[in-house]
Amino acid sequence: MMHHYLPMIRRWLWLLALTTVVAGLVSYTLSSRQPLHYTARTKLLVGPAVQSLNPDLNDLRAAAQLMEVYAVLPTMRPFQEQLIADQGWDFSPGELESKITITTDTTTQILTISVLDDDRERAAEIANAVADQLVAQSPTAAQSDALRQQLQEQIARVESAIRTSEETLRQLEGEMALADTEQQRTSIANRIAQERSYKSEAERLLVSLYTTLQKAPNNLIAVLEPATRGRPVDRQISLKTILGALSGLVGGIALMMAAERANDTIRTPEDLHTASEAPYLGNLLTHVVPHRYGPIVLARADTSVAEGYRQLGMKLRLAGHSRPLNRVLVGDVRGDGSSGEVAANLAVVLAQLGDNVILVDADPYRRVVSQMFELTDRAGLTEWYGSDDELSEMLVPTAVEGLAVLPAGMQPVDLFALMASPRFAAALAHLDEVVDIVVLAAPALATVAASAVLAARADGTLIAVRAGRDRRHEVREVLTNLHAVGAPVAGTVLVTPAQGLRRRLGWQRRSTPVAARQQMSRTQRRVTSKTVES
Q: Which of 332, 393, 391 is nearest to 363 (CA)?
């Protein structure tokens, strides 16, 4: 999976970098230009959590519900209008509401009022004013002190009554000790019992009053922590910049995937598989300007690039086909010259395998094969068509044993008439008799009709698809045209022009044709008799 996406990422790395940097810069600019705000907060306690000595669970639950009510009050318009009128502020209730944020904590029963403003002093002022308004509107604000005072007065009266009762009991007990008659003692005892009952009732009332005094009311709200000067709010420029850059990266990936889906250019073997059902025979590296250098399999035989051509030759020569491949046509899609370089290297490989091979440069428009073998000034196919000479007279032996080249020629010619002529068909049939394999380098398969005629006369057509240039629909169109004329397709190869191939292989450009021929050994110059006679 990663092998499929890595080439795509390399192709669109500029877009990913651009979207990431642009989005990051935009986020940084917008974040740094935001005005500095300040926050201030006031904390209030709702309920008897602190004031009451023994709060029960029901009291705490009631206080939690009341806290939610107090949290809603500052969002009400009458509350806001009264607060603005009391403080003399010059903003609207809606603006005030946008500055205030209220949070509640049912566990601690603490209500927090947070205010965000661009003035640190005003932020604290607003927070404290909202808290004071809540306290002022709560029922305990005006009634709590009065209720406690009443309870304390009642407690004082009951305590005084208890002391009086105790004094009365002491007097009655003294009288009991001085009584002489049974009737006096009985009367005093009844009075003592009544006084003790009165004292017990007073003591119970005193306990109840103390309990009520110690228990705080549920609907109690008090300021725990008033707001001080507002603190500056972190604008989180770094975080926003990173998030912006990540969003730009995601957007770049989306654009990359959309562009890849909309673009049907063939770039990978997987793309070629989706465009063609023909056998895929490999990926080949070629020169951007192939005619400046000779065949790779001769100049740098020890490289992996040369091995790719050898593997291609082995597949074509040794793989089973419906009929022998005596004539192999090599053609590219748009006529970029890659067919000439592939055909030249393939012909050398087939000759090295022991076959007698004739390489025909059937592309007089580009003449890549002729340029690679330095035969551009030699008469060839086009001169043969305009004369009565035999085609074998135009063959040129090469430094590779068993390989001869038929140059494209120098004269302009009607290529379609040449390829469709019975004379050319007869010449090809004669070549089949004198050599093992004829390799033909054809013009563009998609645009030159003569290529289809030539493909119909070949035993197999090898389609060279240029990576990053040819499109899927063009390859399908070529296959349709070949099938329409009954031309068998031997397979496809993906050709990748390498900008740094010369540097990577340590390539030395040929100096002159004479110097190149002087470097050939006698063994390299020898051509089999069968090829020469052809």
A: 332
Using an 8 Å Cβ cutoff, are 442 and 460 in contact? no
pTM of the model: 0.57
Distance, in Å, from the CA atom of 110 to the CA atom of 54, rounded to the nearest integer, reads: 19
C-alpha distances out from residue 211 to 61, 145, 151, 161, 207, Å: 20, 16, 10, 19, 6
Is a pLDDT exceeding 90 seen at residue 57?
A: no
Q: Please count the other Cβ atoms lying within 10 Å of the Cβ belonging to residue 306.
A: 21
CB 313 within 8 A of CB 323: no
- Cα(329)–Cα(359) distance, rounded to whole angstroms? 10
Contact 230, 50 (CB under 8 A): no
Phi-psi region of 282 (alpha: psi -120 to 50; beta: other; left: phi over 0): left
pLDDT (0 to 100) of residue 485: 92
Alpha helices in 237-389 (DSSP H): 237-262, 269-275, 296-299, 304-318, 338-352, 368-372, 381-385
Examine the pLDDT at 192 and tell me if it is beyond 90. Answer: no
The amino acid that residue 502 corresponds to is: R
Per-residue pLDDT tens over the stretch 77-106? 989 999 999 888 888 999 999 999 999 988
φ/ψ region of 56 (left if φ > 0, alpha if ψ in -120 to 50, else beta) reads: beta
